[in-house]
From TrEMBL:
Name of the featured protein: Dehydratase
Recorded superkingdom: Bacteria
Organism: Bradyrhizobium niftali
Coiled coil: none
Lineage: Bacteria, Pseudomonadati, Pseudomonadota, Alphaproteobacteria, Hyphomicrobiales
Domain MaoC-like residue range list: 23-138
Length: 157
């Protein structure tokens, strides 16, 4: 069987309209165990060279069991593109407009993180709509290490 291939029709999941999105839908990212390589790469990209992130002795002097993974690195694990959320939005996506976050527990190399985005609010605004997701990251012990929200602007027509 032969068919014409069109890369514009290549989708990870079916695209949905704003009206097809539902409160409570959860979009999970794959779990990831943090390594020294992850921490070093983030330190290089962020230019954050504070010793709390890499010096074991320094971290222990200030009451930490081990160097603390950068909070912004933990936040990066909530990137919507790590889930199927932006693929679900597809062509109606306009922008990632805002985020807020609370860092609740330390994260260390060797921890496994489980990020998720859950649709918490859908607000129509004429020909556009705002989607707000509750964002969480748990560790391998089931502890909530990060919570917050992301907001996205979508087309509704």
């Amino acid at each position: 069987m032969t068919f014409a291939f069109d890369p514009r029709e290549w989708h990870m999941v079916p695209e949905r309209s704003f009206g097809e999105l539902k409160l409570g839908e959860t979009f999970r990212a794959p779990s990831r165990t943090l390594t020294d390589a992850h921490a070093s790469a983030f330190q290089t990209v962020s230019c954050d060279n504070h010793p709390i992130h890499y010096d074991i002795g320094y971290a222990k002097r200030f009451g930490h069991a081990a160097p603390v993974v950068h909070g912004l690195q933990v936040l990066a694990f909530t990137a919507p593109g790590a889930t199927l959320l932006p693929h679900t939005f597809g062509s109606i996506f306009i922008a990632f407009t805002e985020l807020s976050v609370k860092f609740l527990k330390e994260v260390h190399v060797g921890d496994t993180l489980y990020p998720a985005l859950e649709i918490a609010a859908l607000e129509r605004m004429g020909d556009k709509g705002k989607v707000t997701t509750d964002v969480t990251v748990h560790n391998q012990n089931g502890e909530l290490v990060l919570s917050g929200q992301h907001s996205y602007l979508l087309r509704t027509t």
